[in-house]
Amino acid sequence: MLLRTTWDLLSREYTLVYARSEVDFLTRLRAERDITSPGVTILALVTASILRSLNSVGIQTDSDVGVMVDLSRHLPVGVGTLSNFVGVAPIAVSPPFRATAIASAMAEYTTGCRSLVRFGMATVADMLHSARGPVVQRCANQFAKLVVTDHGELAAARKIRWQSNRDRLYLRFAPVGFSNQITLATNRVGAQLHLSASFYESQFDSRLIELALTRVVDTSDDMSAIGSCK
């Protein structure tokens, strides 16, 4: 019993690294996106970029990627409380990690009645897995399972009165459900992109993940989200 309790406490300790872009990053990203990849969401561009960046630093990613989806963006107005439902859509993503393919997979998974039912069932199943406890969360899969959450698109996030202090960094400890999981949380502060990654340090090198995040927001790096537009 004591060993089980000790493991429970240790397994809950995950770490966080973060990165912040230049103040006009999102303005430049949207301008490039509108020219080369019209219709592709910022979330898809960031997801493509972080996948390429993680693999570039030696962290191989699983083809199953979880993307947080706010159903209010996909359902008609006036559908009731369902429009407030936010869950994770599992999509398959393979190299070369194109943002257009990610955007298409997200749209396909969340469009139509059958897709929405599948999306809801997958989200409930994920919640049940998370409730089983940390011992079950240990995973033999050595590939990093990426889960991306986009706080900038949530109604609650839009109500936050962001301060104009450029030195302040906005981040969240996003949930980490499995030992091989890396959860990327995004915040949009004006035209600036703030990223934070939560993960178990016993599984991944925090320096490599920090480097990967930096590459996403570095406009001079071909791995950046702006580079995902090409």
TrEMBL record:
This protein's name: Condensation domain-containing protein
Organism field: Mycolicibacterium mucogenicum (Mycobacterium mucogenicum)
